[in-house]
Amino acid sequence: MGDIPPLPGAGDRWALFLDVDGTLVAIAPTPETVRADPTLLALLERLRGACGGALALISGRSLASIDRVFRPLTLPAAGVHGWERRRADGAAMPINVSTEALLPLRQVLETYAATHPGLLFEDKGDSVALHYRLAPRYGAAVCRLARGLAAQHPELRLIEGRKVVEFVPRGTDKGRAVSAFVAEPPFAGRYPVYVGDDATDEDAFIAVNQLGGSSVKVDDPEQRVRSTAAQFRLPSVSAMHDWLAAVAARLEGDHAAEPTGGTATARAAFS
């Protein structure tokens, strides 16, 4: 795995798939407090134009939450780890799998959060999650509880993310969401690049690798570097922003606008 992700070469046509929390925006104490600043919004607008519209957000957040973070932008997106998907033409693509299996877990997790100060229960409709970022002392206990519930409910998938456990019905993931996008305009026929930071992004890393694209992991400064399917790494969210700006400059053909040093010294781009 290389340290620095590549930049586009002359004439390259990229499709960008970007995770949200921990990738485009820093992790916050609670999901509701996150907002994209004007500089990031402007960069995303620039990238969308440079990619011919082939830019999508892939997140564990719901589509409504994604739109709140990036308002006034409304981008193609997959929410709840692929359970919700909005195409580039704005059409919503429903997933025809029942979420009834989540019903017994809602009460269990909500009750557990209520009796352990600092834990946050989140019901996204298509998934349920328990956050322990504000109470890391409960992390081991939360994970034990979640793994026990997963063993009792094999029809559900347990996702252990950054100080959060989440249950979703089996049937889709971020990798399948990316694969669905690349079969549609304006993503079809372009070089796919996925950037994420967490265990929930590994399915997308694998999918993009299998498609012959590039996968990039943004490292978590709070945790020891772990193994990943991603081909490249960036050290932080701010380094990710710098790299995206360099990508935009390359796609626009404005090499003079690239920063010197840092991520702009990436290895030779793909032909």
Description:
It is a single chain. 30% of the residues lie in helices and 18% in strands. It is α/β, with parallel strands linked by helices and 271 residues long. Strands 4-3-2-1-9-10-11 form a 7-stranded mixed sheet, sandwiched between helices. Helix 2 links the parallel strand 2 (55-58) and strand 3 (77-79). The relative contact order is 0.19.
Compact overview of the structure:
Helices cover 30% and strands 18% of the residues. With 271 residues, the protein is an alpha/beta fold.
What tags apply to this protein structure?
alpha/beta, 271 residues, single chain, 7 helices, four-stranded antiparallel β-sheet
Proportion in helices = 25-40%
Largest sheet: 7 strands, mixed
- Poorly predicted residue ranges: 255-271
Instruction: Describe the global form.
Output: globular
Q: List the total number of helices.
A: 7
N- and C-termini, Cα separation: 19 Å
Name the structural class.
alpha/beta
- Write down how many β-strands occur, each being a DSSP E stretch of 2 or more residues: 11
Mean pLDDT: 87
Question: Which strand order spans the largest sheet, edge to edge or round the barrel?
Answer: 4-3-2-1-9-10-11
Question: Helices and strands, in N-to-C order?
Answer: EHEHEEHEEHEEHEHEEH
What amount of the residues lies in strands? 15-25%
Rg is: 18 Å
